Amino acid sequence: MNIFRLAGDMTHLISVLVLLLKIYATKSCSGISLKTQELYAIVFVTRYLDLFTDFISLYNTVMKLVFIGSSLAIVWCMRYHRVVRRSYDRELDTFRYWILLGVSFILALVLHEKFTLQEVFWAFSIYLEAVAILPQLVLLQRSGNVDNLAGQYVFFLGAYRAFYILNWIYRYLTEQRFTRWISCVSGLVQTALYADFFYYYFISWKNNAKLQLPA
Amino acid sequence: REQPQDHDEL
């Protein structure tokens, strides 16, 4: 464990807690893409298949349970909570995410570390995570200005993966064997997808204006 | 104490 990875995990945790706070406190999920939340739930479930078979550390196990639990709780809330579900932008959240699921799965069948069920699903979850934010970014574009909690959610989510890139650089420099090419390349693609959002987020923060994404 | 696990990251 290094400081970059810890910072990344904490930022990731904050992004999830910000989202849970927004939904719980305001009893509203306007501006949040249910499709992105469902993709993240799939990412965590398929990535942590080793939850009960490989014990790495208490921290690792606890964080896996928190990520799986919170992502499923958010999806449940947005789908079934009688108050929250009314504020879901159903007609704006129309990204055809089956494409993302299909492409990620096919890529995982081709590119993986070992051809075992667990490894193929692990690679699938890595590729899927890289593109899972797309429905949310499209929803932010369509709903124009971003209410600040949704914007913060995306900001922390992008920052977490940027910290992980620093973590991979650090591990590449300090460990003799580096076997994280799948995560590393996918993480770079993921962070690049956030780059334009970060640009507009920074501009709006600098001008102290509401975040206006170009339509 | 890093496990030799390939996937010790979240």
Keywords:
heterodimer; B: 10 residues; little secondary structure
Give a brief description.
The complex is a heterodimer of chains A (215) and B (10). Chain A is an all-alpha fold and 215 residues long.
Description of the molecule:
Chain A: Belongs to the ERD2 family. Chain A: It is found in: Endoplasmic reticulum membrane. Chain A: It comes from Solanum tuberosum (Potato). The complex is a heterodimer of chains A (215) and B (10). By secondary structure, chain A is mainly alpha-helical. Chain A has one domain (3-205). Chain A contains eight helices and no strands. Chain A has helices at 3-26, 34-47, 58-80, 98-110, 117-131, 134-142, 148-174, 181-206. In chain A, α1 runs parallel beside α3 (58-80), α2 (34-47) runs antiparallel to α5 and α4 (98-110) crosses α5. Chain A is globular. Chain A starts with a helix and ends in a 9-residue tail after the last helix. Helix content of chain B is 0%, strand content 0%. Chain B has no helices and no strands. The mean pLDDT of chain B is 66. With 10 residues, chain B is low in regular secondary structure.
Question: Can you lay out the helices and strands and say which pair or pack?
Answer:
The complex is a heterodimer of chains A (about 220) and B (about 10).
Chain A: H1 3-26, H2 34-47, H3 58-80, H4 98-110, H5 117-131, H6 134-142, H7 148-174, H8 181-206
Chain B: no helix or strand
